[in-house]
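Check my protein:
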Amino acid sequence: MKPQWRPAPRRAAPFGRIAMLDPRHTSVALIAVAGLATMALLQGFAAPPLDDGLVRIEETTVTYREPGEYLDGGRPVNGPMSEVFADAPLFIMKRQVLRAEYDLCVADSRCKALDGPQDGSLPVVGTSYEDAVAYATWLSATSGDHWRLPTDREWALAAGSRYRDDALTEISDPANPARRWIAVYDAEAANDQEIDPQPRPAGSFGANEHGLLDLAGNVWEWTSTCYARHRTDPATGLATTIENCGVRIAEGRHRAYMTTFFRDPKSGACSVGVPPANLGLRLVREAGGLRRWLGF
């Protein structure tokens, strides 16, 4: 007798296979799939994704000069230099914040409107330190991630070969301090070369070895590091440090010490040295919560 074809017995759908599930159970399956994906990341079976526009920097070093004013017995000297390294992955914006992005914060009444119109597709300029912090706070609240300004040391690590040592001279003659003043003046005059202040589209000044765009272009970037004065008593060797957080460091073609509430660096905001052409910002994203566990 010729055997008749019968359908195979129906088996239960594999765990996480949504297509064969009743629609009422789809949400349960999605949660299960998400759980499996998370476990895969935790066990190293899949690379954690990176957001577009972020660069991950790690295992990098830079020769870094400590910022601020250093006085040895009342005589100005250069800050100490050391080799610094990234002790944890650093996630930093590939490009500077654009004007249109900043204006979203203004529209949400969380940032102050900037002075004058500007093309929204260009890097935002004319920002004070306080504006930059307000934007980071707003972006953190709306995105669910923790965004902040980089420290000066983090900025230097990210800048890599585009980080500039701010020691203008090694001349230090206690018997004739005018020699150092003249040398510093000459170095500052050389740095104060004509720079076109007009903001340019992202990428106009190229990328560094980490893939970050427009470092040391014509837009300086705020950091969270305060200006500090360091004094050493040559008789006792006692060192004291006084921080002034009303002045913060902006980084770009050279290091600049800027008053926090000024937006226009040419209007007297630069406390020391040559003022920047423009003041903008680039943020760091903290790895917190699940991101810290997953490594991104």
Notes: DSSP finds six helices and 13 strands in the chain.
